[in-house]
Amino acid sequence: MIEVKSERILQLTDPSLRTSGIPACEKRRVRNDKYFDNYDWPCIPRLKPSIYADKTFDLPDYNTFCENMIDWSVNGQIAVLFGHDVMIWKSKEDITMVFNVRYPSALAYSPNGEYLAISCKTGEHPVVELWDVQSPSFSVQSGQIFEQKYNHILALAWDRPGTHLVCGSHFGTIFVLSAPNMNIIMKFHKHYLPITIIRFSPNRRYMASGDEEGNLVVYNWGSCSVHLYIYSRRGLRVVFDWHPWTDSDLVISEKVPASIILLHVPSKKIVGYYQQADRRTIINSISFSKLTGELLVSISNRIGNVNYNHKILVMASLDRVVDVIAFAHGNARFLVWSPDGTHVATSGNEDETLTMWNFCARNRKRFPQNAPYTPNFHLSECNFGSQFKKWNNVK
């Protein structure tokens, strides 16, 4: 018999590392709906979790820290920014091509895989180029040059039809470009720091952007009006991801101390919360599986003063870890999914690799996207103590 204690289920670190008298974590579940079977979000966990490394690429001196520098096309191409080079691997032909670009900072494939948008520089001006990656020569279709004051375009995201490209600048300004002519049709300035991440909700009802100090803005995509602000008081960069089925659940994670917030965006209500009490655990990246609804959380646990234990937790809920991906060396600094959701790519740290993991089989049954949900918890009812105060500026 294995003794299972509730205090160990949610703990992301080794229980032996916990200082006596300090609680392991602070957590709160407020969603209680029979439809979710007591999960914090819609999820159909795999019956037999079995993740294994499918392919590994050796990338000497690879030091990319941002998922904006890697993308996976529906046509099987994988593009990676590597210093001043754009490296593209065509999986079907097993061909790798390298293109030299001046100061590249972000890239993103169009939804149909026809174009690859790349932000770089021409002289001292930031520019976003649109490459035709269907042609054998990978020609530059069009581009947009920005004023020098914007410095770099750090984040790119496409809308679902592929007719608009959203660009986040170092200056905090967001531009909306039409594709493929790349004309500026809208710009707005809601951040005062470099924008590091832009993500659309699955059905493109909302768009969220985050800056380098963890401040988030959620927009109504149809009008580009602001739906809500989320201010960070710690000033640390956060990572977030939308649940792939609901178009309303946004998971926000902060590195130290390791914390996860589950926010229901339409109602601006928090429906789940977790925070590690000690500072030994760092969250590097989070991402939902499109097929299963499981949440992948890449963490690093400090052992002693210099050593770290790196792994990816596969979570069906805030209190259910259903699988673990362990790393012999390095950690997963970001997670990028294949278009069909069966594989996930991770970038190593110390071992300088890019690994493709086989996550689950094809043709999985998906959760119904029209699942009924009526939140029963309002932000004003939050009372998580001093550790939660930095999140109470949601408006």
TrEMBL record:
Alphabetized Pfam families for the sequence: WD40
Example GO molecular function: ubiquitin ligase activator activity
Keywords: Repeat, WD repeat
Keyword Repeat: yes
GO CC, alphabetical: anaphase-promoting complex
SUPFAM superfamilies associated with the record: WD40 repeat-like
Protein name per Swiss-Prot or TrEMBL: Protein cortex isoform X2
Species of the source: Glossina fuscipes
Gene: LOC119632102
